[in-house]
Amino acid sequence: MLKNRLTQLIGVINNTICTQDEEIIGVDEGIKFSQELFQKCHENGGIIYVVGNGGSAGIASHFCNDLVKALQLASSTLVDSNLLTCMANDYGYEHSYSGSLKVLMKENDLLVAISSSGNSLNIINSVNVAQEKKAKVITLSGFKSINPLRKMGNINFWLNVSDYGLVETGHFFLLHTMVDLYNAYFSQKNSVAHAGKN
Predict the structure, then answer these.
(1) Which of 19, 73, 119, 143 allows an S-S link to 67, with CB 3.0 to 4.6 Å?
(2) Half-sphere exposure of 157 (CA within 13 A, CB side)
């Protein structure tokens, strides 16, 4: 049973669909483009906001830990219980994140929006705010190909499976890969640029 589940997960990862402004690109290319968005956000003094619900909120929190500790990039999940419940209570849960982002988000910031179904209104509304602020957006979703979140970001990762465990594990794997290969990617990129000047 475990081997079958692992085989399923490998298949989901291998069949991930990545789009850049609605154009299909390779997943490796999407990861590299995401890493460049992280770096650009950092260079411009921005903050990487990461939002999700339930299991996706756990992934968002872990990802923020990695961004801050491993990569030393400013990041926030907006899950302070007082702030989150204040926004949800006063404006409705669908605005639990977007209410804060309307105040906090700037053009040089970056939003990473995670929703297994791609249908969560509070995540979609967060993306809408980021777009209003002219900030860049990365989305991760799964389940149906027609989910709205899938086409809302500058870069989008969609996992073609209707299984929370596989979607969430796939999202976590993709985000961890971005972190794990971040320094190696920019070291290689800088080496190539330096070689081109010789």
Answers:
(1) 73
(2) 29
Longest dimension (CA), the chain: 60
Q: Which residues pair with 25 in a beta bridge?
A: 18
Is the Cβ–Cβ distance between 22 and 165 less than 8 Å?
no
Distance, CA of 134 to CA of 106 (rounded, Å): 8
Confidence of residue 195 (pLDDT cuts 50, 70, 90): low
Helix (H, G, I), strand (E, B) or coil at 86: helix
Residues 6+ apart with CB under 8 A from 134: 107
Whether residue 194 is predicted with pLDDT greater than 60 in this model: the reply is: no
Q: Which of 155-159, 168-172, 191-195 has the lowest mean pLDDT?
A: 191-195
Query: Which structural domains are found in the chain, ordered by start?
Result: 29-158+167-186 (3.40.50.10490)
